[in-house]
Amino acid sequence: MNKRETIKRFKCLDCKVSTLDTNEYYMVEDRVWEKAGDDEGMLCIGCLEKRIGRKLECKDFSKCPLNFDPMWAKSDRLLDRMTNGSNFLYRSNPT
């Protein structure tokens, strides 16, 4: 994948912000993504919340390695939603 394709892949489908640059690269449960329209691509946290009509909660995030991998920095907004104000989910790496 070249740089142009990478940049395009990480753009929020709605607001066009780079989810890679804003550190909002994550996976949610299928039920959440389906409610958002099940598009292929990325959504920043704000645009996903607009689509589903509510604030994300820690139960909305998949228990996949991506959400726990320390290699991927996370925005304050993403961490807030993943942890609901605590560090419970983020520290509970399911292995």
Give an account of the 3D structure:
The chain has 95 residues and is mainly alpha-helical. The protein has one domain (3-91). The protein has helices at 3-9, 30-35, 45-52, 76-83, 88-91. The longest helix has 8 residues, at 45-52. Residues 89-95 have low confidence and may be disordered.
Query: Helical segment tally?
Result: 5
What is the chain-wise order of helices and strands? HHHHH
**What overall form do the CA principal axes indicate?**
globular
Number of domains: 1
Helix content: 25-40%
Rg is: 13 Å
Low-confidence stretches: 89-95
How much beta, percentage-wise?
under 5%
Largest sheet: none
Distance between the termini: 30 Å
Record field, number of beta strands: 0
Oligomeric organization of the protein chains: single chain
How does the helix and strand content classify structurally? mainly alpha
- Average pLDDT across residues? 86
Q: What labels would you give this structure?
A:
5 helices; 35% helix; 95 residues; 0% strand; mainly alpha; globular
Quick overview:
The chain is mainly α. It has helices at residues 3-9, 30-35, 45-52, 76-83, 88-91.
